[in-house]
Predict the 3D structure of the following.
Amino acid sequence: MRLEGTIIKGIAGFYYVEANKTIYECKARGKFRNKNIIPVIGDNVLISLKKEENSNDRYLEGTIEEILERKNSLIRPAVANVEQAMVVFSVSYPQLHIDLLDRFLLHIEKEDIVPYILLNKIDEGNENEYAELVERYTKIGYEVICLSAKMKINTELLMPKLQNKTTVFAGPSGVGKSTLINTIEENLKLETGEVSDKIKRGKHTTRHVELIPLSEGGFVLDTPGFTSLQLEGMEADQLQYYFPEFDAFLGSCKFRGCTHLHEPGCEVIKALEKGEIYEERYEAYAAYYKQLKEIRRW
């Protein structure tokens, strides 16, 4: 007997697949390992059952036979078939690094996932310190939500966006992802951590990725924090499509195949000179482009 289901959790080589409101503990066929294919959370899969439905075990056993085509996938965190991403950063501690935010947004844009930027801990920060950041990313076209999970400020804005969607919460350690999810879904008791007073960095409290069902429909994924993010899987010539502020100017440059770095008649550069594109974002584009070309060369 075969069933179609979704991987909701993976631990130590076991994958927990939800199918027909039942959880099956599964191992993956060796053929995936031979092809260097790793099942990830969110994958829609076909499983064969090892035990009868009347088994007394908490998890019925099965085997993952096929991984169905993915709509999208992220590398960090390793999840598939995500509809939207809540990119969580703190406006106090740990310190917000723009480069890390931009890198994560690139991965989201590449996979055509709907992005939201959540700036947490506004009860601890000086509004003047993040007001400019909000203005910048809002002008680019991102929805930015300023909130406090601890004080429950603006957290009520999130549930309507999460209903009946599969949403990943991602960001550095210590920014309050788990606390935020606990606040939104009060019956959850996800482990939370404090920011180290000594190094002003968060501790990793989420150790694995798991699809968590919401009472009002949909799933959220609380993911382990990170302090760096590479540009894996990207091509330099495709990078321009991951900067939304470039969209209005692409295809209008004088030269076909314009890199938007030095060519005459470049509409992106003209927009930059007019102040229609933020200089910091353009500089990030130029740096990432050169980095990807260097990687390609090696």
The longest strand covers residues 2-11. The CA atoms of residues 98 and 169 lie 18 Å apart. Confidence is low (pLDDT under 50) at residues 195-206.
